[in-house]
Write a structure and sequence with these properties.
mainly alpha, about 60% helix, single chain
Amino acid sequence: MFWLFFNSVFVLLAIFTVCFLLEQLFARRPRPQGRYQSWGVHAAMAAVNNLGLYFFLPVTAVAFSDLCMQKGWGALNQLQLADTWSVVVTVIVFDLALFIQHVATHRIPLLWRLHRVHHTDQHLDVSSGVRFHFVEIWLSMAYKFAVIFMLGAHPVGVFIFEIVLAGMTFFTHANLALPIGVDRWLRWLVVTPDMHRIHHSETESETNSNFGFNISLWDRLFRTYRDQSQRGQMGLVLGIKGFQDKTSTELVALWKQPFASSPESSGSSSSDPR
């Protein structure tokens, strides 16, 4: 499985690099001074999250789905669909499952405290895509394993989804201005940077919108889609009220943040699930 891990990392680094270059050429919003200091924090979080899973998790998601296939566990393995259909169903169901998980992280208080770490970033760029608390990463992986077990997810479908998910995470968080026509057309199919940036608004009603990761259909279907921010893309204020200090910029503070009391000045919106 090492070759699979190595090639996945290579592909994702290529996607990251392309998104980084594009946001240098076609930036949506001005880059704040000292922003690259946050990159070190985000890189450390990514290293801890990914290396922790790699070295301490007994099997990868792809390997576990292969085990389920061999054992005949899960709905798709019982139905014995053609491989092509199993892959397609796996990718679509996985995307819906993670949409539901994302909504849950905004609705359930404990999960929101963990996910809030991601939302306290006050400026989005491609590096924001790896800004997640390690406990949330482990819970997310456990959730994925449960989906794989119940669905009988096809290993190829799981592999494709994981690559697409990570790549789209870089793309949707990029400080990238797509042409208006391209953005509007793409939104009928996938999540775009402008669409996802609204989800990172400090305005609670906007934070509770645009939950999708890859496919934009789910937000339209479940009526959580928001076309534009009230303030527009340039006036959009990002982050969480009450978390504008070191709790949103320093590595150890970010790891401690879910377990610390919410700032008294933050009001209900920063401590309550969104």
